[in-house]
Amino acid sequence: MTVATPRLTLERKLLGECDLIISLDEVGRGALAGPVAVGAAVMDAVGARRRVPEGLRDSKLVTEKRRPEVAARAAAWVQASAVGWASAAEIDEVGIMRALGLAASRAVQAVVDQGVGVENALVLLDGNHDYVSKVHPVPLRVRPVIKADRDCASVSAASVIAKVARDGLMTELHGSHSEYQWDRNKGYASLEHREAIRAVGLSPFHRASWAITDAPTLF
């Protein structure tokens, strides 16, 4: 099966209406453990005329082995990039949608701290729901687009950058919590992960408010 290559068609159109696009995509939303992460990738009209990096796809369509090199090319291709985080404790406290908003707002603030202005920027968000505007302290123009991580190259860049960052964090956490095999499952509901939870209980990095032991096995 041929995997569609993301393009810059929508970005080029939208850049006729704004100076910058800040593309956002989340990873880790459905995990049992670890933070949720939102990647941000900034694109301007000059960048939108450059060739899409080789191998760039939605992170779910890039093999784990290849993701780091693709993420590095994506980060070098866009004008700025960052990853925002919301912890498992925050997810427990405010719920997953609010936590996504916090992570997205932090990602936007991180690129602002790199010198990106949001005065005439548009936020291009993967999905069908704007979870950013209600959280970010400064008004933002947000355009949710279904399957943007698959179809829009700048969102694909945000996706793979966030995925590599979160996978790296979960691999680091595996060092002190090896019973959960986070180096393999990255905090998602694998059979080995759920069996470890039943055997030893939850870690401080688990989303304790979730019905974890009843969660479906994802792989």
From TrEMBL:
Its cofactor is Mg(2+); Mn(2+). It catalyses: Endonucleolytic cleavage to 5'-phosphomonoester. InterPro entries: RNase_HII, RNase_HII/HIII, RNase_HII/HIII_dom, RNaseH-like_sf, RNaseH_sf. PROSITE patterns: RNASE_H_2 (PS51975). Manganese or magnesium. Binds 1 divalent metal ion per monomer in the absence of substrate. May bind a second metal ion after substrate binding. Pfam families: RNase_HII. It is found in: Cytoplasm. Keywords: Cytoplasm, Endonuclease, Hydrolase, Manganese, Metal-binding, Nuclease. Its EC number is 3.1.26.4. Signal peptide: none annotated. GO terms for molecular function: RNA-DNA hybrid ribonuclease activity. It comes from the Bacteria. A divalent metal cation binds at residues 25-26, 126. The keyword Cytoplasm applies. PANTHER family: RIBONUCLEASE H2 SUBUNIT A, RIBONUCLEASE HII. Endonuclease that specifically degrades the RNA of RNA-DNA hybrids. This is Ribonuclease.
